[in-house]
């Protein structure tokens, strides 16, 4: 869940449009800020100009009346100026003497004629000829000092309604946000489409590579390659060449594995021959004894007994070999007896190396797994273990079904499995089998067999030395069984 | 409808007449009026900006008298009165107060009839939020007068205060002139002044024309009925014939459709000849003030 939230794990078709959207939002924010700042500037300048013109007009209209203290003319001038400057929206205008006494105001009830407001006077003196407007404020205030040469006659203070300016800024901001939002959405969508289109060859390649991880590399269909031009075309062709060479190598490895099988067969065959050859000397001795001392009853019985036992031993060896290597007419399930067969099979080789093979057979009846690959895999591990074991040591084979898993483990007292060999057993399926000249081929074959059955191999090096190789194969489900049948 | 429909030609005619007058002026190279032109002065009785009214009045008078007519308006009553007493104009519609004070120099031409009588009242108005119940309650407030030469807009209130034994500058904290009855109403309605003296006729007309303005005021006191502002002429007329024609035109106004339209705009019923004694009540107030000093 958290992995999905990490932006690094998002697909590029999402990341690029999101990045575009993010940049657009950033650009939009910066532009909007600039536009609004400029708008506020323009509005203020405009307002200032209008206020100045308002005050100019009013000043020239009221100045003589102020000197005469003509309340009505000043009031009338204020009213006329208000009508003339409707666009400026004057809220209130106060004309006062230099000492702060009000001559007339647009709202006489609030600023009665002749009233003296010391606060107002102070503000007027401090802010003579000032203009104050803050963006977002509801009002702007302008003060004009009227003076005849050298003498202040009075002040005009005007307050203007600026709410419409704030409303204008708001509407501009909404327009900007809406436009930017729409543009961002459109560009992000376009970006998503473009990326999806541009990334299609990559997706094709990724899918093929994904297939190659589980099976062998599958070349990209020729018509798809033909359609693709430019670097992706070259990439596809390069991939197909790679797939072809992988395929060749796969074939080669299979052939090598077959040869290895034959090789191990050869070793077994020679061990078998040795097994048969050993009693043969005794049998010929018995025959020679019979020929010369056959008339002696006890000698004869003794020799015949010898022949009998020797031939029985040979028959057992031959039977086991037959059982192990007979042509399987049809796949059959792994049986408990298969493990006993393996013990018999390995016995000659083990004896040759003076190594004991002990079996802990935990199986009962049959296990729903194909017998041939499982037996071949275990046999390879046993051969390896016997080869690694010092003289007089023992190799332990145990097998059991645990839940839905078939587990077989082979333990030896050898010097420990080399890391490279362990890598072959547990590493990726495509790991090279031939890292040091054929040593790993049997193990690699085992790895392949187990992989094909959907299982895995665990390598364990217990503290007391040696190696434990654990073969873990999931049992086939009923459906698969019926498919096989 | 008829009044509005006929307005444009009248205006055009006014312009033509004015242009002709200008040409005449230039040709004569003199400030004197062209021969036969009637110069009629108007005080800012109520609608001092109503150009349509002026144009129609001019148009009617020109047609009715057969003379070119020039209407002369000034900001104050005093200026018009001065024009009249110095015999620069044939006649003028002035106020009863200057008529009384300049009685020796002037003669009465006609008196307008309002609600069928040559009489009107002076009102003292206050803002409709005012709690004043009588003129005495206005002490210490700000008062708006219309014109120092106006009967209803100054004299009546002034005389009332004199009866109370006070002078405006002592009674009110502050008093100023607005030089127009409508301005008095505006000053009181806006709160610039707490009270005002206004022509009752103008106020009643304004109640009909601009109810939203008068609605912000209420009448505190109505004076007794006084003589309506008259049309007066110099005691020695500039031209007897022209003055007679002008008087005739004024008296005949109700009978003429155009004259009737002008009267309707002025909310007047007509003009009448009245004896000068009609103005005795105003003269009494002037005397009162003279005695009060």
Automatic annotation (TrEMBL), chain A:
It is an enzyme of class 2 (transferase). It catalyses: ATP + protein L-histidine = ADP + protein N-phospho-L-histidine. PROSITE patterns: HIS_KIN. Pfam families: HATPase_c. Gene3D superfamilies: 1.10.287.130, Histidine kinase-like ATPase, C-terminal domain. Its EC number is 2.7.13.3. Residues 271-477 form the Histidine kinase domain. It is a multi-pass membrane protein. The chain crosses the membrane at residues 12-31, 172-195. The keyword Ribosomal protein does not apply. This is histidine kinase. It comes from Chelatococcus sambhunathii.
UniProtKB/TrEMBL annotation, chain B:
Pfam families: Phosphonate-bd. CDD domains: PBP2_PnhD_1 (cd13571). This is ABC-type phosphate/phosphonate transport system, periplasmic component. It comes from Chelatococcus sambhunathii. The lineage of its organism: Bacteria, Pseudomonadati, Pseudomonadota, Alphaproteobacteria, Hyphomicrobiales.
């Amino acid at each position: 869940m958290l992995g999905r939230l990490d932006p690094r794990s998002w697909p590029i078709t999402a990341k690029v449009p999101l990045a575009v959207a993010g940049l657009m939002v950033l650009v939009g924010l910066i532009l909007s800020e600039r536009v609004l700042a400029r708008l506020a500037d323009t509005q203020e300048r405009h307002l200032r100009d209008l206020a100045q013109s308002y005050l100019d007009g009013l000043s020239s209209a009221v100045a003589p009346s102020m000197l005469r203290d003509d309340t009505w003319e000043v009031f009338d001038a204020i009213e006329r100026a208000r009508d003339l400057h409707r666009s400026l929206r004057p809220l209130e205008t106060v004309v006062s003497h230099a000492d702060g006494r009000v001559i007339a105001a647009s709202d006489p009830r609030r600023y009665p004629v002749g009233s003296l407001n010391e606060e107002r006077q102070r503000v007027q003196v401090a802010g003579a000829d000032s203009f104050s407007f803050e963006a977002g404020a509801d009002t702007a205030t302008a003060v004009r000092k009227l003076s005849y040469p050298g003498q202040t006659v009075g002040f005009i203070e005007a307050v203007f309604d600026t709410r419409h300016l704030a409303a204008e800024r708001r509407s501009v901001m909404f327009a900007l946000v809406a436009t930017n939002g729409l543009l961002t959405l459109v560009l992000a969508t376009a970006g998503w489409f473009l990326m999806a289109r541009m990334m299609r060859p990559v997706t094709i390649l990724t899918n093929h590579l994904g297939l190659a991880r589980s099976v062998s590399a599958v070349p990209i269909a020729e018509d798809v390659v033909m359609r693709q031009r430019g670097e992706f075309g070259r990439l596809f062709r390069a991939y197909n060449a790679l797939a072809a060479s992988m395929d060749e190598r796969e074939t080669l490895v299979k052939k090598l594995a077959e040869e290895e099988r034959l090789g191990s067969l050869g070793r077994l065959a020679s061990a078998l021959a040795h097994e048969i050859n050993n009693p043969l000397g005794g049998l010929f001795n018995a025959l020679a004894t019979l020929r010369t001392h056959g008339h002696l009853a006890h000698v004869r019985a003794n020799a015949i007994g010898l022949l009998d036992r020797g031939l029985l031993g040979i028959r057992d060896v031959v039977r086991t070999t037959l059982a192990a290597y007979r042509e399987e007419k049809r796949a059959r399930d792994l049986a408990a007896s298969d493990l006993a067969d393996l013990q018999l099979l390995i016995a000659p080789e083990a004896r040759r190396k003076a190594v004991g093979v002990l079996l802990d057979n935990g199986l009962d009846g049959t296990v729903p797994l194909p017998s041939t690959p499982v037996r071949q895999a275990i046999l390879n591990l046993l051969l390896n273990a016997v080869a690694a074991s010092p003289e007089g040591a023992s190799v332990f084979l145990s097998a059991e079904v645990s839940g839905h898993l078939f587990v077989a483990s082979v333990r030896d007292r050898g010097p420990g499995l080399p890391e490279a060999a362990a890598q072959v057993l547990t590493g990726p399926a495509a790991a090279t089998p031939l890292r040091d000249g054929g040593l790993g081929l049997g193990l690699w074959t085992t790895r392949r067999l187990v992989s094909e059955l959907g299982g895995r191999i665990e390598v364990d090096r217990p503290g007391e030395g040696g190696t434990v190789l654990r073969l873990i194969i999931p049992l086939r489900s009923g459906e698969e069984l019926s498919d096989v049948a | 409808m008829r009044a509005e429909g006929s307005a444009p030609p009248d205006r055009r005619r006014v312009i033509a007449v004015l242009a002709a007058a200008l040409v005449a002026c230039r040709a004569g190279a003199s400030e004197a009026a062209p021969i036969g032109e009637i110069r009629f002065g108007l005080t800012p009785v109520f609608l001092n900006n109503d150009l349509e009214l002026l144009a129609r009045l001019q148009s009617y008078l020109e047609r009715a008298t057969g003379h070119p007519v020039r209407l002369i308006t000034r900001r104050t009553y005093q200026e018009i009165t001065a024009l009249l007493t110095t015999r620069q104009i044939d006649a003028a519609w002035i106020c009863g107060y200057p008529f009384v004070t300049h009685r020796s120099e002037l003669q009465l031409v006609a008196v307008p009839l309002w609600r069928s009588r040559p009489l009107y009242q002076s009102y003292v108005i206050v803002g409709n939020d005012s709690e004043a119940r009588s003129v005495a309650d206005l002490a210490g407030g700000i008062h708006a007068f219309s014109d120092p030469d106006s009967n209803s807009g100054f004299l009546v209130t002034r005389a009332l205060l004199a009866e109370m034994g006070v002078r405006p500058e002592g009674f009110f904290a502050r008093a100023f002139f607005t030089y127009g009855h409508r301005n008095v109403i505006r000053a009181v309605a806006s709160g610039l002044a707490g009270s005002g003296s206004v022509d009752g006729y103008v106020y009643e007309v304004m109640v009909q024309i601009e109810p939203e303005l008068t609605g912000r005021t209420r009448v505190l006191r109505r004076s007794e009925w006084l003589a309506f502002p008259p049309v007066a002429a110099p005691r020695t007329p500039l031209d007897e014939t022209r003055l007679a024609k002008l008087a005739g035109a004024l008296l005949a106004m109700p009978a003429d459709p155009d004259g009737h339209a002008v009267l309707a705009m002025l909310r007047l019923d007509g003009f009448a000849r009245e004896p000068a004694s009609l103005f005795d009540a105003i003269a009494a107030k002037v005397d009162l003030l003279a005695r009060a000093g």
